[in-house]
Structure formats: C-alpha cells, structure tokens
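Tutorial handout. Part one gives the primary structure; part two gives the three-dimensional structure as tokens.
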Amino acid sequence: MVKDVKDYRRIAKELVCEKDKVLELGCGSGKTTLLLSKISAKVLALDRSPKEYLRAKERLKKCLNVYVENVDAWNITEVRKLVLKNLNGEVDVLMVDLGGAEDPGKILSLTWRYLKVFKPKLVMIKNRLLSKFLEQSQTLNNSFGMMNTPEKD
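Part two.
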C-alpha cells in the first residue's frame, strides 16, 4: 500500500521479477507499465479512459510483452477473458492504481474480488486515502501499545 507513484514504482522495481505476469488496473498513460515491461515477463495494462488508453498504446507500442486494453477494471468478466488470452490465465502480480483519491472502500472491495479470482502472489495498491487511513490506524495502535498479533484463546 502506497500513497504516491514514486513509491509505487520503487516498490515494483524491488518486488516484481522477470518471470512474473502482471495485471495492472489503471495504467494511465503507461509510465509504470513501461517500467513493468522491463522487469517482468508479461504485462496486461488496463485503463477505462479512452484518452489514457491511446496514450499508453502509443508509449508502449514497441514493448512486445505488453498488452494494453481499454477496459473498466470493474468489469471482471471482461478482464478475466483478457487475462486468459494474454497471460494464459495467470496473474502473479496485481497492481492497482485507480485514482489516488478513489473511495478506499471501493478499492478494497475491487481488490478483494481480484484476489479471489486470480490469487496473485503480490498485490500493490496506490491510493492516497487508503494509505493515510492505514498510517493513522498504525499510529493509533502504537499510541496504545497495541500490536497486530493474533489473540490467544
């Protein structure tokens, strides 16, 4: 979970490996996708904005391991078909960047649906509001000496 694109890309460089098949929800103009194309096996990059889709398509036209589609991430049925076609049905890494100020509840709900369908080994979410919420929750826990450990029976 990160709040800005700088950390999103830095962590991607650290955690994504050359054999990974990446599903990127919200590729925008394709800047992060270009990075992913250099460090992973395949990338399926999706954006619902026709304008951003065209920008990404142009930026990534020489990347033979990248598939860019103009699809809404909420249409999981369509995304599933594209994953089957372009990633052989496998998603190792799920990257979620659907607008930095998008409703955190919606982002978590959508991400949960993708986790159930594709079972990626790594999920990265860029959302400023959700990141802020998690930071505040951690601060609250630390203030009361709480730790995130399982309760004993």
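Part three, for discussion. The helical segments are 5-15, 31-39, 50-59, 76-87, 104-118, 128-143. The radius of gyration is 16 Å.
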